[in-house]
Specification:
heterodimer, A: mainly alpha, ABC transporter involved in vitamin B12 uptake, BtuC, two-stranded antiparallel sheet, B: alpha/beta, Rossmann fold, 4 domains, 6-stranded mixed β-sheet, globular
């Protein structure tokens, strides 16, 4: 009890920069510098645009995962959910195209958002009402969603109708003032995510639930509601990623989004969000998604290491990030 | 004191002393928790140690069983000084502590648990037959009704307790120390356990028995040693002391001038009425009324169901039946949020585990419960929060170097004030405070007492749950005492004394003297 010796407080306007919070951005800068040294083409405008665009899917889904993880849960089903939502969207669009033409894309996207939110709600309700470990629940739904897309596609692929390809194409390949559209969409999602997480009451309760669910409960926060909503946000993010994804390959297959859940969790965790919940770093998550994609890109462009080892390098990165988190504080 | 005390016992050279403590003391840094304990534990006797929470009973037991090393003094056995480096050495010498908590591996069998870490067998295999046989023997000797192959998780609590005791008795023991062995048991199970203890005594074992329940002590003890504030008050022959005398010896200190003066009696209609509340593993048939302008104290030993009662009342743990009305409005079966809206808040005793987010800044902790009041819209405004924090820091005299500190960086007293500020932000009418001053220094304590007093004078109603008797007596206008999940006594005015609270909390005899009120008719166990 040293309170007597400390003096009366004065408000402290600025906060000290914490190196642990800067870590993901420093790491991203480091990877980019190394990339530039290895191959001067790396920093070319087209390559950068390409890398950032390709990281959009993981980044968007990882924004949702930041909510789920910071509320103290986990979602392993996002990759399978992505494939399932993609399949439903393409089927809807193809069905509506003869009567509605290109407008089928809008309706399909809306259906995708609803289905994504519903999938998230399902996960959330099983976790909160059923009081089952999120790991187990989403391991189960991961299998369910994957099986559904395999069944819908009959083991093959669900291609989008030829007539829709051209009008849909710009969503992935187009740009706004020179910025690729998926990057713009990612930016919007990230800004919205950051706003909700850092500036709203919901965001506050989300982090409180993850930080210590007992404290949240004793403070009148409905932890079940907060977590369910986090899963719904996750589902919406998956649907947004699916909307951007369809024009890229034009089809849903049983391998769409395979193992993305691992990349997503990796991006969130190397971004500085605590896996046990309570601390969320939306911008760190974006940096994490970029780091993963930049490393993959570098390995393809350089000849030092086989690109078959991409996953191994990413694995090393996540372990290094965790060690750094532990020792730099 | 109701009757003159009998003479204390002094060393009897003829007694077969199994273990002797000579000038034993323990200090952690500058804080002395136990000093100058000189004590004979005699073979073939039950020696009870009694004292309030925090009197030093647990420390003494840990010293005797070498779980903790003494700072002063030493132990001796058979006239020889012994220095046990650790508990294993003490066990080898025949001194064993039966822990209060059940420390068994639930998925292993009874025999596997008994021999855990000391399995019989060759260098690789285990000899289940020999272990089972010996386990059966030990279980039979203490009257346990389980077999060596039963899985521990399938056994009722009382049997698990016996398994735990059997584990301690696997080898022959000279001294067996029981730490509140009956804390988790029901009445008939207690009787069985007391028989086990008597059986040990009759076999010539020296038994040290720590308990809050004075009726057990009276029924069992050949000698009674009283501890108070880390010091030994004395040792008496068990048959010389009544339960009331024991209670007086345990308390025996003067009330400090720490408490605000008592307020005039209240006349207002009750604001909170609870009847027939049942809380799972907690409270039975609980009922209480609370009036604006009064402090209602809740006494009872740790584990008597006090915290459980109020967590159940607040919907924070499963509770059944019951009816809760607040200001005439029925609020039974609603959620914490609804109760908050009705003006009822609960300050947890577990400041660090359930009260504050330790690695979040103060401002976030302050506003967590009152987010809807602080930010009427969807968005949170940092400036509002900072202004509120500045106000609360001034109002509650929270002393910190910087307002940007995390809750975990504050001292206990400042944390408690922050927690108070946090729940007061929702502008409650009824404030339930569980252990308002646990682990905080005297200056902060008196500030919190004054604050409670000012709340009540402003017409609010406060329930104080406390293990600290002086606090309970000093603050309360009325006191309810709980024992084993039941409210067993209600004390008013001059009847609110430490002795009466301890007596009601520990003794079944107290049941006869209870003052009941109309809405609190409850059945006392035979």
């Amino acid at each position: 009890m040293t309170s007597a010796t400390s003096t009366r407080a004065t408000p402290e306007p600025g906060r000290r920069i914490r190196w642990a919070d800067m870590g993901p951005f420093l790491a991203l800068a480091l990877v980019i510098v190394i990339g530039t040294l290895i191959n001067s083409n790396f920093v070319s405008g087209t390559n950068i645009a390409n890398v950032v665009t390709r990281s959009a899917f993981i980044a968007i889904i990882a924004v949702g995962a930041t909510f789920v993880i910071s509320s103290g849960c986990l979602d392993l089903s996002v990759g399978s959910m992505m494939a399932f939502v993609t399949g439903i969207m393409i089927l809807t669009m193809n069905r509506l195209e003869p009567s509605m033409g290109a407008n089928a894309i809008l309706v399909g996207a809306a259906v995708g958002l609803v289905v994504g939110a519903a999938c998230g709600l399902l996960n959330g309700l099983i976790v909160t009402l059923g009081k089952i470990e999120p790991f187990i629940v989403t391991l189960g739904t991961m299998g369910i969603f994957r099986a559904l897309i395999t069944w819908l596609s009959d083991g093959g692929s669900i291609p989008i109708a030829r007539e829709l390809r051209d009008p849909y194409r710009p969503v992935y390949f187009g740009n706004l003032f020179g910025v690729p559209l998926p990057v713009v969409i990612t930016l919007i999602v990230v800004l919205a995510g950051a706003f909700i997480l850092y500036r709203t009451k919901y965001g506050r309760r989300c982090m409180a639930a993850g930080s210590n669910s007992d404290v949240a409960r004793f403070s009148g926060v409905s932890v079940a509601w907060v977590r369910t909503l986090a899963y719904v946000i996750q589902g919406l993010c998956v649907a947004i990623a699916a909307i951007c994804y369809i024009p890229r390959l034009g089809a849903a297959t049983p391998t769409t989004g395979a193992l993305w859940e691992l990349q997503v969790i990796t991006a969130v965790v190397i971004g500085g969000t605590l896996l046990r919940g309570g601390k969320a770093r939306i911008w760190g998550t974006v940096a994490g998604a970029l780091i993963l994609e930049v490393i993959a890109n570098l390995m393809v462009m350089s000849n030092f290491v086989s690109e078959y080892l991409v996953a191994a390098v990413q694995g090393v990165i996540i372990i290094l990030a965790m060690l750094a988190h532990r020792f730099i504080r | 004191m109701t009757a003159p005390l009998p003479k204390t016992l002094t060393g009897d050279p003829a007694a077969p002393v199994a273990l002797r403590a000579e000038g034993l003391g323990k200090a952690y840094g500058p804080i002395t928790v136990l000093s100058d304990i000189t004590l004979d534990i005699v073979a073939g006797e039950v020696h009870a140690i009694i004292g309030e929470n925090g009197a030093g009973k647990s420390t003494l037991m840990k010293l005797l069983s070498a779980h903790v090393q003494p700072s002063l003094g030493h132990l001796s056995m058979a006239g020889q000084r012994v220095d046990f480096p650790d508990a294993v050495a003490a066990e080898e010498a025949g001194v064993v502590l039966v822990h209060q908590e059940i420390l068994l591996a639930p998925d292993l069998t009874v025999a596997q648990n008994l021999y855990l870490g000391r399995e019989l067998g060759g260098w690789l295999g285990v000899d289940d037959h020999r272990m089972d046989a010996r386990t059966t023997e030990v279980l039979a000797s203490i009257g346990a009704h389980c077999g060596p192959r039963d899985r521990v998780s399938d056994l009722p609590l009382a049997q698990r307790q016996l398994v735990q005791i059997a584990r301690a008795l696997l080898d022959d023991r000279k001294v067996v120390i029981f730490d509140e062995p009956t804390a988790v048991l029901a009445n008939d199970e207690v009787a069985a356990l007391l028989d086990v203890v008597r059986g040990l005594r009759d076999r010539g074992v020296a038994v040290l028995y720590i308990s809050h329940r004075l009726d057990e002590v009276e029924a069992l003890a050949d000698r009674v040693t009283v501890l108070r504030d880390g010091r030994m008050i004395g040792t008496w022959a068990g048959h010389d002391l009544s339960q009331r005398q024991m209670a007086e010896l345990m308390v025996g200190r003067e009330l400090e001038m720490l408490y605000p003066p008592k307020r005039p009696p209240v006349t207002a209609a009750p604001i909170l009425v609870v009847s027939d509340l049942e809380v799972d593993h907690g409270a039975v048939h609980a009922g209480l009324t609370l009036h604006p302008g009064e402090v209602l104290g809740i006494g009872g030993m740790i584990g008597s169901g006090r915290t459980e009662l109020f967590e159940g009342l607040m919907g924070l743990r499963p509770a059944h039946a019951g009816r809760i009305t607040m200001a005439g409005q029925d609020i039974t079966r609603r959620s914490v949020r609804d109760w908050m809206a009705a003006g009822l808040v609960y300050l947890t005793e577990d400041r660090k585990g359930k009260g504050l987010l330790l690695d979040e800044p103060m401002a976030r902790n302050l506003t967590l419960q009152a987010l809807d009041n602080v930010h009427p819209g969807f968005v949170t405004k940092a400036r509002n929060e900072m202004a509120l924090l500045e106000r609360s820091v001034a109002e509650y005299d929270i002393r910190v170097r910087s307002l940007g500190l995390e809750a975990g960086q504050l001292s206990g007293g400042n944390q408690q004030k922050l927690l108070l500020a946090k729940v007061m932000l929702v502008d409650p009418q009824v404030i339930i405070i569980d252990e308002p001053t646990r682990g905080i220094d005297i200056g902060n304590k008196s500030q919190i007492y004054d604050f409670i007093d000012s709340l009540v004078r402003a017409g609010k109603a406060v329930i104080v749950v406390s293990s600290e008797l002086p606090e309970l007596v000093g603050l309360s206008d009325r006191v309810l005492v709980m024992r084993m999940g039941r409210i067993v006594a209600e004390l008013h005015g001059d009847r609110i004394t430490e002795q009466n609270v301890v007596f009601a909390a520990t003794s079944t005899e107290a049941g006869d003297q209870r003052e009941t009120v109309a809405n609190q008719t409850r059945q006392e166990e035979p």
